Amino acid sequence: MDEKLSFFKDGLRLDGRRPDELRPIKIEVGVLERADGSCYIEMGDNKVIAAVYGPREVHPRHLQEVTRAIVRYRYNMASFSVEERKRPGPDRRSYEVSKVSREALASVILTSYFPRSVVDIFVEVLQADAGTRTAGINAASVALADAGIPMKGLISSCAAGKVDGEIVLDPMKAEDNFGEADVPIAMTPGGEITLLQMDGRLSRDEFRRALELAKVGCQQIYEVQRRVLVDRYSSIAAPESCEA
Ligand code: UDP
Questions:
Q1: pLDDT single digits (tens) 169-222
Q2: pLDDT at 1
Q3: Is 18 exposed, middle or buried (0-12, 13-18, 19+ CB in 10 A)?
Q4: Into how many domains does the chain fold?
Q5: How far apart are CA 148 and CA 120, in angstroms?
Q6: Minimum-distance ligand 1 atom for the alpha carbon of 171
Q7: Cα 222 to ligand 1 centre (Å)
Q8: pLDDT above 90 for 236
Q9: Among 6, 52, 172, 225, which has the highest number of CB atoms less than 10 A from its own CB?
Q10: Ligand 1 atom 18: the closest Cα is on which residue?
């Protein structure tokens, strides 16, 4: 068998998707009672939950910034979220994912409105199937909005990759593991990139195509995020506006 064709059958991927197709997305908002904002997301077989607290007092206090709020982001993968049990606790990878995810979101948060305070974002991966950092950013962005944190806009995130020489959107685990490249991005609704990473090798032209494809994916995710928030808040607002 030609190994180069093993990730595609009749032009479709192993899970039946076209090369430019996202995995199915499900988003629920306000799933945690004790967080200020929260969101549960499924992107394919990824299951991720995000909780937002704040703006609140900073501890330890020496981290306070006098002119703005600080933003903290903790990405954590549950031991049971992956095939081979993950050792609990932070590691190099989770520090890296937390750092880039924090930066992807912090640039749209209006931190100057809340000097000396902190916005804490916790992301827990319950089930992983490649693309957990992007799923986490999508969930965190919705959870920030749910917490009422003022932002310039929502952040949407997904990856494009290269598998068997083809550029594909939103690689799943098998494609990520055996593929030639992975390019996760995060983006504002206006198209400003706030996260761009690359694993593997791509030619300049392939990189350009992967970036364009990931941008289209982000636009589609943005529509889902926006719709979920509008649905939630329009249904909450409706009875009050009737009484007024
Ligand atoms: N993964 C794993 N064990 C680990 C880290 C990752 O099995 O300790 C798997 C998991 O399914 C993850 C995928 O490898 O989603 C790809 O990991 P990567 O570091 O590329 O991050 P992600 O694509 O999840 O953002």
A1: 999 999 999 999 999 999 999 999 999 999 999 999 999 999 999 999 999 999
A2: 43
A3: exposed
A4: 1
A5: 13
A6: 23
A7: 23
A8: no
A9: 52
A10: 130
Cross-strand pairs, 76: 124
Q: Mean pLDDT over all residues of the chain?
A: 95
Q: How many Å lie between the centroid of ligand 1 and the Cα of residue 92?
A: 13
CA distance 154 to 142: 7
Classify residue 142 as exposed, middle or buried by CB count within 10 Å of its CB (0-12, 13-18, 19+): buried
| Ligand 1 neighbours (beta carbon < 6 A) | 82-83, 86, 93, 128-133, 173, 176, 182
What's 59's domain CATH number? 3.30.230.70
Give the number of the atom of ligand 1 that is nearest the alpha carbon of residue 131: 23
User: What is the residue range of 41's domain?
Assistant: 3-243
| pLDDT tier for residue 6 given thresholds of 50, 70 and 90 | confident
185 beta partners: 158, 196
Distance from Cα 217 to the centre of ligand 1, integer Å: 20
CA 3 to chain CA centroid, Å, is 32
pLDDT tens digit sequence for 41-61 = 999 999 999 999 999 999 999
Nearest CA to ligand 1 atom 19: 93
Look at residue 2 in the predicted model and tell me its pLDDT.
47
Rounded CA gap, 186 and 102, in Å? 11
pLDDT 10s digits, 121-147: 999 999 999 999 999 999 999 999 999
